[in-house]
Amino acid sequence: MAEDHRRSDGQSIARAVAILRALAEHPGASFGQLAAMTGLPRSTVQRLVGVLAQERLVVKAFGQQGAWLGMELARLGARVRLDVRALMRPFLQALHARFPDNLDLTMREGARIVVIEQLASHDAIRVTSYVGKELPWHCTAAGKAHLSLLAPEQAMAVLSGGLQAFTPRTETDPARVLAGVAAAEGVFADRDEYGEGASAMAVALPPLGGAELALAIAMPTPRFLRLGAELAPALLTLRAEVEAAYGAGL
Q1: How far apart are CA 65 and CA 196, in angstroms?
Q2: Cβ(200)–Cβ(189) under 8 Å?
Q3: Domain ranges in the chain?
Q4: How far apart are CA 98 and CA 158, in angstroms?
Q5: What is the pLDDT of residue 103?
Q6: How far apart are CA 143 and CA 163, in angstroms?
Q7: Residue 107 clears pLDDT 80, i.e. is over it
Q8: What is the DSSP code (8-state) at residue 41?
Q9: What's the alpha-carbon Rg for the chain, to the nearest Å?
């Protein structure tokens, strides 16, 4: 009996959320339109909209058929403070248990790419990085992942003004950098481009709290060459797990 009650409560919540999402996409939708969009009976929609209206999560304008999201949602949303590092930490720790190398969680701040969280390598020979470090766009795996999130004109703009050659393998032609990013198919690599003897692989992540994020794993190049076939699937799996946990973005 208790199990049936919990199942019923969960079903009602899921239906109410479906209505809220439909109203977010179609403000002013009528009961009939909401029923069509959610697949719920019109009587169920009418009942749930009434409950949501009592909690000020939905409002109905006097004399009009449609419904709109209520200001209570805005008030609750304004109180949310996403800690991106805390949200990502379990995923980083799980990956670090498998690959105990440098993991850098990066975020775009305007025209800068900054490390906002890191799990350091356990090895004596390691790639050096730290929280707060700014990374170049054109020759780091994380930078390339962030370039993939920009419109072409934005990406070209951040690469304008001359690109520094950090090693003999650094590509300094913006057009070639962007061509490499376009061909990368979601997984971006730096092979001795930012530092000789150091390589990395990265993926872009779903946005959290409005932040554009990427995750890179960096290690000495000999180890990178040994593990290369394992790194891309692991990073793509992590990205899929983040999407499953938080959706396309929060």
Answers
A1: 66
A2: yes
A3: 2-78, 84-246
A4: 34
A5: 93
A6: 13
A7: yes
A8: -
A9: 23
